[in-house]
């Protein structure tokens, strides 16, 4: 099983294909399988590196809170482990925020950024006010199955075929890790660091995604030279809602960057 140690965490990853390296980072409470449609479509032109963020999937995290900067450090150490100097970084939601943090802290390692339904600040938003007490209450009183079913139903709104995968992945995550992850996300504050990104950026947003809708204008304004793309009939998990459109957008953007 391909793993490496990053501090006290053990990180699982997979590599597929040949070409310029592209790291895919999944969203909160999911795993590397989120990117299956992209791996299948893009591996003929790129070296695809998909991995499980600490505490997710097959990766193991030490006890304590979840922090973006730790996961971003894991991403950079993954590149070190694979002897890759520079890579394209693509992520969705939490994965986008992790990729963004990696590009801020290690700008020389990011060839480009593809940020899907990303965010820059949740620390002062309604997200924190909602999820801080909700995660505490859920961890203590709500069984895992109803939580997984509800989350899967909401995220698979535009593509019900994705519902079993989402439900199973959420169910497999320990309650404590689930709670730590959402609590860590609610502490996110990266607004003041956006100007430090120096690589090309593709900013993608699902038109029906209300979770990160109010974050997109600030990202577009502060990420110098960013390209913006909005997809119809896609919710938060836009890469699973509209895989063919997302694959085409990624491929076209990266070919332009590499040329």
UniProtKB/TrEMBL annotation:
Residue ranges constituting the AB hydrolase-1 domain according to the UniProt record: 20-242
Keyword Hydrolase tagged: yes
One Gene Ontology MF term: hydrolase activity
Keyword line: Hydrolase
Presence of keyword Nucleotide-binding: no
Domain of life the protein comes from: Bacteria
A family per Pfam: Abhydrolase_1
Name of this chain's protein: Alpha/beta fold hydrolase
Upper taxonomic lineage: Bacteria, Bacillati, Bacillota, Bacilli, Bacillales
